[in-house]
Amino acid sequence: MLNLEFRPEFQPHFTSSRSPLPEAKKKAASVSYADAGVDISSGDRAKQRIKYLAQRTFSKNVLSEIGGFGGLFKLDTAKYKQPILVSSADGVGTKLKLAFELGIHHTVGADLVNHCVNDIGVQGATPLFFLDYLATGRLDGEVTEKIVSGLADACRANSCALIGGETAQMPGFYQDGEYDLAGFIVGVVDRDKLITGAGIKPGDVLIGLPSTGLHTNGYSLARKLFFEIAGYKPELYINALKDKAGAALMKTHRSYLSVIQKLTAGELVEGMAHITGGGITENLPRILPKGLAAVVDIGSWPVLPIFEHLRELGNVEQEEMLRTFNMGIGLIAVVKPEKFKRVTGLLDRASEKFHVIGRIVKGDRKVIYG
Asked: Most buried residue, 30, 46, 308, 349, by most Cβ within 10 Å?
């Protein structure tokens, strides 16, 4: 985060020189920005801590310091023959509501970074740098530090520099204790290494990698089912989940970057889909060429208990579940049959669990559940 942005809620009106202001009977009390709800001094203290956390993620390619008007990053053009920049932006969504209630703020940064890393990773891109946007009503230095610590730790884990962003205090816009968090990532891939799905053909195999839980999608429905329909409290232990309700929902969105890089280094995949909002139903078709469809075999992977529990609580139709949640599959790789053994061997050596969940057939760019 580079700057703290302060948005005044009104603009003063200026009178013409021909209409002088009436002489005040007595001098009015001085009003500061802090009186309007924006504490600049507190913001400055937060920026110093943010600066330290962000600098821990810097590489030799970062040419700027935190606090400038823009972050500077030098692209290593010697490493890439025809570099293609790949970017993505996202938010954490209503999972934040649960973070507010539980007072857990250090994991939402990782949720955000990992989501964005996966989005560009499935196209073969290596993350370069990340920027975040944190907006709140009143700045809480302790909460801000927890959020940014999570962002910085996840950036370091993904070899990605946190080079800037924005922290906005907007009193009256957000309730006390609430905030919004969004991020923007840029990565790079050589043109001949770009993964688009263009080479996908009938007969290719679908390999699914497990998710850790809901990741960052479907929380509006999940919260309604848990806390309104079932009447759970976040601290309630649920036997079916072997976990507390809040903890089960707060499991961190995992990064698939390590396994993605292993697969792409060996040129073993034709396409990859990050399963986010819309589930397999809406995300897998995004990489299918015209004239192809994907057959996904229900029952070919173990659905996580939390999804089965959610289904039971609301008597949710299977179609609705599949287009809302990832159902336990966070990433799908499309591989050629002749490369299947090499792929599964690589995954085994990496101790990465996987499931063969379907195949590519002729069709109309959709998922067919079997």
From this structure: 46
